[in-house]
Design goal:
The chain is of the alpha/beta class. It has three domains: about 80 residues, Winged helix-like DNA-binding domain superfamily/Winged helix DNA-binding domain (Arc Repressor Mutant, subunit A, Orthogonal Bundle); about 100 residues, D-Maltodextrin-Binding Protein, domain 2 (3-Layer(aba) Sandwich); about 100 residues, D-Maltodextrin-Binding Protein, domain 2. Strands 4-3-5-15-6 form a five-stranded mixed sheet. A five-stranded mixed sheet has the order 11-8-12-7-13. The protein has a three-stranded antiparallel sheet with strand order 10-9-14, with no helix packed on it. Helix 1 crosses helix 4 and helix 2 crosses helix 3.
Length: about 300
Amino acid sequence: MNTLLSMELLVLSVSGGSFSAAGRRLNMSPASVSRHINALEDRLGVRLLNRSSRSLTLTEAGQEYYRHAQRILPQVNSAENRTRELGKAPHGTIRVHSRMFVGSQLIVPALPDFLRRHPGLNVSLIMSNTDLNLNDQNLDIDIRMGRPPDSNYAMRRLGETRRVVVASPEYLAQAPALEIPDDLHEHQCLIYTQYDQSSIWSFVDEHGERIDVPVIGRFNTNVGTSMRDLTLAGLGVTMLPEWAVRPYIANGQLVQCLPGFEASHTDFTFDTGIYAVFVKGRYIAAKTRLFLDFLVELFGDRHSGTPLPRA
């Protein structure tokens, strides 16, 4: 008796509600499905299913067996797939989604090296500032800022992306003092938003107290490079990922403001992680694992620099 086949037929029968549904999945007749499950019950010496003309329900023993089968079958499938891949060079297309700023500024510049190392792989990179449904878009990986709340996804933390408030020396020379978050009320703020010209910037002080500050400004956008360019031009104050402004602070083109406060846009709620998100339970192909390792290396290197100089 093929135990794994019988186990799979039991799971498919329960999830599909009938032997016919299980048979359609594996191109078998309902009678053949029934024989396999009967043989499984005979071998175990216990009834797994209560059968009626209208439904199938698990017995207490069946519920226990079903729970184990749901765990075992994906593991067997994964083991077989990984074994088949041994000795084969990974090939195919990796479909990835990321925020535009992260994709254009971090991932794209590093892709040539990855593609040279893996000539059998292609990368399809989709960039937008909205979270996509991985199943609907047939994505292998979605790169997200902040920990995803959706429990249907698995994730791997890639690195850190602390946010900082910055302005140009020229702007600060003619603007009011900026020593505490509430001083932002007196400043032109360049705002990351997809909807309107207002936002809330959040801070935590040295005592752990949270401070939420509504900010306004004459310019808002959902493109991080535009915010950085206009900040460099002296148009106002903005909040950006540390990695995006580190070189400009180092060469004096930008100054970090409010260094004694941890900063966050409210969308990210102080989670400083960058995450690779993928569908929970789905087999992760060798090509996807290679790209995940590449991302860990990329973001780990990006966030391992020395601390920013303080204003």
